[in-house]
Design a protein that fits this description.
By secondary structure, the chain is an alpha+beta fold. The protein is 28% helix and 28% strand. The radius of gyration is 18 Å and the shape is globular.
Length: 275
């Protein structure tokens, strides 16, 4: 099926198409991050997400669900050229503080605008940037609720995206290179998401959504709300509590059966892997 731009814009709360400018790109990026949550419910419950236009439309636009990188950024990839943006896909290695990454398991986009390259990413479940990040700026960039930078890694040849911690040190999120990304590459990332060897997706519930001034996250039974640098944390106590969170502030449409299945997986979650 053809991508329905009007239906997509309505789903992310935009009444008109953003212009093909850096400001328009930022508006698009923010709109999607605040309406389509990151969530790994399908991989967690043993379902391989579909990546066709029909699958993404059915789940994310009409079905009231979110997704993870290949779904959320896959949807964004359909909208970008229709809105006048020149983009290309990149694959990244998640680092989360490590000196190097593992598999190329994350999917994002580069957009060329105003003679600069910008990386945009609406599908990373961590403490990610909430506006396009300039790859031409060597210093700090304030993007939403955090300070970020990009730097070259001479050892791997990759570009590393980092977030500044409260103590002034830098925490690596992921690193990417500019190899050509093909549809089979994206399919491979998707298949890895449900593989038992995957450290997180088949074993731990992860949900995140951007909100003004911060973000909401859920990792297994730990729910965090971060606003203006202030963090509140609590434990989810029951399937009903979980359902109220997922269908309330996380804006997901889920039936009781699926919520119950997710709660069972949460109760059975192994210890979190060390960072």
């Amino acid at each position: 099926m053809a991508f329905d731009l009007t239906r997509y814009l309505t789903r992310i709360g935009l009444t008109e198409a953003p212009p093909p400018t850096v400001e328009g790109l930022a508006r698009l990026h923010w709109a999607q991050m605040t309406t389509l949550p990151f969530e790994n419910i399908d991989p967690l419950t043993g379902v391989l997400p579909g990546l066709t236009n029909e699958s993404l439309d059915s789940k994310l636009i009409q079905g009231g669900r979110g997704g993870y990188c290949v779904e959320l950024n896959g949807l964004l990839a359909q909208a970008l050229p229709l809105l006048g943006f020149q983009s290309r896909s990149v694959l990244a290695r998640v680092r989360l503080g490590a000196a190097q990454g593992g598999w190329r398991s994350h999917y994002a986009h580069l957009v060329t605008q105003d003679d600069q390259d910008w990386i945009i990413d609406t599908g990373f479940g961590g403490d990610t940037y909430q506006a396009p990040l300039s790859l031409s700026t060597p210093g700090e960039q304030v993007l939403g609720d955090g300070i970020f930078r990009q730097r070259p890694d001479p050892e791997t040849g990759e570009t590393v995206i980092e977030r500044k911690k409260p103590d002034g040190s830098w925490f690596s999120l992921y690193s990417f290179d500019r190899i050509v990304v093909t549809p089979p590459d994206v399919d491979a990332v998707n298949i890895l998401s449900t593989h038992p060897a995957s450290r997180m997706f088949p074993h731990h519930l992860m949900v995140a959504i951007a909100i003004p001034g911060g973000r909401l996250t859920l990792l297994d039974r730990t729910h965090k709300r971060v606003i203006d640098g202030q963090e509140e944390s609590r434990e989810v106590t029951s399937a009903e509590d979980l359902g109220a969170l997922l269908t309330g502030p996380f804006r997901l449409t889920l039936d009781d059966g699926l919520i119950g299945a997710v709660w069972e997986r949460v109760l059975a979650a192994p210890p979190l892997p060390p960072r």
